[in-house]
Amino acid sequence: MEEYVDKGYDYLNHWELVNSGKIVVSDTAEDLWRRMASYFKWCDEHPLEYRRTVSSGKEAGREYTEYKIRPYTIKAMCLHCGIFEEQLRDIRQGLDKTNDYYIVVSKALYIIYGQVAEQAMVGEFSPSFSAKMLGVDKEEVPESSIKIEVVHGLPALSNSENEILEKLESEKPLL
């Protein structure tokens, strides 16, 4: 994909940037990393803009622009890099954790997770939306290997402590 900086483009909308060039599959893990880093840089350089109006005081009615941090997202990164989210999943589920693609994809996913989590912690992003986006709102059920074994021929359980004491007394040898 052509670098938007080289052409002097100043896209405010991500779709304009990715629509401007051909989508080319990365030939190397390094190329994929460059594309991912380009996405992160674009997000940092293009914060979200909100038009606001002062609602009270001497400046009431005056319009101003407020800027907010643009969150990194997996889907937008995939769009930027010309890959599918399923490809990322396949790479991450691969068995070879020393593979360069695995390392690059893992690093990018950690960066996205870190940015979204950190901004949610300081109140910049919605904590509940961020939790859903990061998948931490799902209850994790740990996998376990509980084995249930039925044992036959055991004595019946006692109904009270007194019953146990009586049973122990009756089993004492007489002196």
Q: In CATH's first tier, which class applies?
A: Mainly Alpha
Structural class comes to mainly alpha
CATH architecture type: Orthogonal Bundle
Looking at the chains present, what oligomeric state does this protein adopt?
single chain
Percentage of residues in strands: 5-15%
Kindly summarize this structure in a few lines.
With 175 residues, the chain is mostly helical. The protein has helices spanning 14-19, 29-45, 74-81, 85-92, 100-121, 127-134, 161-171, and strands spanning 48-53, 63-68. The N and C termini lie far apart (96 Å).
Break the fold down into its secondary structure elements and pairings.
Layout: H1 14-19, H2 29-45, E1 48-53, E2 63-68, H3 74-81, H4 85-92, H5 100-121, H6 127-134, H7 161-171
Antiparallel strand pairs: 1-2
Overall description:
The chain is mainly alpha-helical and 175 residues long. 46% of the residues lie in helices and 7% in strands. It has one domain: Topoisomerase I, Chain A, domain 4. Helix 2 runs parallel beside helix 5. It starts with 13 loop residues before the first helix and ends with a helix. The N terminus is likely disordered.
